[in-house]
Amino acid sequence: MSNYNKYDKRIYSYMTLRQTVGWIGICLPLVLFLYSKLFVEEGNLEPSISHYYYTLMRNLFVGALCAVGLFMFFYAGYSRLDDLTGDLAGVCAIVTAWFPTSPIVGEPEWYNHLHLPFAAGLFVCFAFFSLWLFTQSKAGRIYKRDDDDPSIVSIAPQEISHMKKIRNRIYIICGFGIMVCLITMAAYIIVQNGNGGSSRDSSLIYWLEFTALVLFGFSWLTKGEFWFLKDKEVSGEPDIRMPEEEAKQLGYKWVNPWRCGMLK
User: Fold this and answer.
1) Model confidence, pTM
2) What's the pLDDT tens digit per position in 136-161?
3) Residue ranges of domains in the chain
4) Which residue of 4, 23, 67, 209 sits 20 to 30 Å from the alpha carbon of 194, by its own alpha carbon?
């Protein structure tokens, strides 16, 4: 039985979890938008996604962020950096959910000041996943040991699959898009505060957050190989198999495999 088939159910379950996180990122801003247009007088939008905490959609907002945060905590990455980024994103998501942004009316409490930096940190983690971690590949690296003889390792072919190249382009577009949204939000807040105004004076922050969340969601849908983004199971260049010591002498390096031994 091949390694792929051996862990087939676990791989597909993990891909489904990635897709679920992606759908949360896409659906959350869409549902909040529909709520404003259908149930709010004159269809007015909140100044930001975070301000929906003070509406009837509070439970949805907090629940969605907590779900994303828990997934990030338990996300089994390919490397230590992957795991640490997931843990940091989890902390940022939970703090963003539990410590709301400053209310539109009234003076902010001390905990309201925690919301903005942790929300920004969450978007930075999302961008880092897309731009750096998701674009990594096992191509040309040692990625597993032989089941019968642990001293023999397998080295993935040098060539990256066609669908992986397409996914990488999507990751880069999503990552840069998130960073552009984040930088634009920061610049707008600084300019508004400098002019004596407020970022709540328009819905620009709302739309930038809307866009960033949709990009985050699409990036994770892509990571979950949703629909046509999945690699085709075709026979290509075979793995190189050799003793681990020989592989290291030839300059091959390990890539930390996923917990079940498959790196996609």
Assistant:
1) 0.78
2) 765 555 556 666 766 776 666 656 67
3) 3-228+238-249
4) 209
